Amino acid sequence: MDFNVKKLASDAGVFFTRAVQYTEEKLGQAEKTELDAHLENLIARADCTKNWTEKIFRQTEVLLQPNPSARIEEFFYEKLDRKIPSRTTNAELLGQHMQDAAKEFGPGTPYGSTLITVGEFQRRLGGAEREFLQMSAINFLTPLRNFLEGDWKTISKERRLLENRRLDLDICKARLKKAKLAEAKSAAAPDFQETRPRNYVLSASASAAEHELRVAQTEFDRQAEVTRLLLEGISSTHVNHLRCLHEFVEAQAAYYAQCHKHMQDLQKELSRFPNSFAVNASTSGVSAGPSHLSSATLPEASPPSHPSNPSNALESSTLKIEEVKPPATGTRKAKVLYDYDAADTSELSLLADELITVYTVPGMDPDWLIGERGNQKGKVPVTYLELLS
Questions:
Q1: Which one has a higher pLDDT value, 291 or 210?
Q2: pLDDT tens, position by position, 342-352
Q3: Which UniProt keywords apply (predicted)?
Q4: Closest CA to 114 of 327, 277, 294, 228
Q5: 190, burial (CB in 10 Å: exposed 0-12, middle 13-18, buried 19+)
Q6: What is the rounded distance in angstroms from the CA atom of residue 340 to the CA atom of residue 347?
Q7: Cα separation of 289 and 299, whole Å?
């Protein structure tokens, strides 16, 4: 117990002395030993690496798991050294809801069967996402975390030790300087009654201070070399993180490619289903005719066939498109459902998903409208359009 008390008192004294030296340096009242330029550059590079690695690590965590509560839960599991439970992804949950809904609506109905198919592909997307999250956590997040919680802690510890050695060195320099000044002052104004004892004590004090300075300089140089070797290892850290970054990009590319393939397969599956949704043109002021209603119940989702127009030749001879003027009222906006190639110069070619202005003129076939897109004008088939209100 006595030994521990003495050690505690000694450590407290050292800490107090270092605190005084540090404070005087900050106030400009004491000299400070500067590190060499190479070591300073290594320290600045290490600090930059740590700061940006930490930011990249935190933002990658947000990217892979946007839910902060889930991230906190995973953090506690890691600290408790327990396996993180498998969590259902949002896509998998959506797929499950779709399939459950299909059971209620009836799997034999068009809507129910489509829900089952889409739900299955949503679950596949969720599985691909889970695999991507696991690969990214292992190949990218874990190496970054190991650096921040392992290598960087070791570097920080050695840097603190180097700072303590520097403070001890500067304290020894200050002691030696004071001893030299006292010795010189004593030599300049000798006391004839106590000349020998005082000179002897001052000389011994200066010798002890010189010895302490040599020991402190040796320990400082040794610690500076250890710290330098650790900081030079940052280059290896960059190489390792570069490899991990490539693996993260490859995992990300594979994940998006897999999602793209799943969505292409889903589109192919949906194209085989009956198209039971109808184009609602009941509120339009333009008569769509019987052919428009029947096109909404075609068994395929492919573009409808060109509407038959026996009077097309007659209209072409009597109706000149360039002379047609839009009415003052009755024009509508329409969304193009499918691509359409004009059969002749009186018709207007269409691209799917574009918006055009349409209207009718007296004497036109009810399966056709006049469409305008900018300066272009021509007849367009009603079955290729979705009339907007």
A1: 210
A2: 988 889 999 99
A3: SH3 domain
A4: 277
A5: exposed
A6: 10
A7: 19
